[in-house]
Amino acid sequence: DNGLIQKTDVIYTKPKTDKWISFKSKFYAPEKALFGMTFSTYWINVLVIWSMTIIIAIVLYLDWLKKLIDAIDKFREYRMYIRKEKKEKKKNL
Fold first, then answer.
1. Buried b vs exposed e over 70-85: b needs ≥16 C-beta within 10 Å?
2. φ/ψ bin of 8: left (φ > 0), alpha (ψ from -120 to 50), beta (otherwise)
3. pTM exceeds 0.90 for this model
4. Are 39 and 31 in contact (CB under 8 A)?
């Protein structure tokens, strides 16, 4: 790449659209690249907010958070049980 690289006023640079999903857009850029096209930052932000809202609604509806906490608790209890057995084996030897 024997081109110039803009180091000042980077918010005026256009995002590269050569990849399917590009995360290299500058934070304050007026356009973001997604699926090989450029979109207004406003619509990308709306898309992100709605997708996160839908994901959180699904997680809460299906009780995945409770299931995750229960799985962590079972793992912790299993680990404590294994430690207790090891201590008892050492005691018996």
1. eeeeeeeeeeeeeeee
2. beta
3. no
4. yes
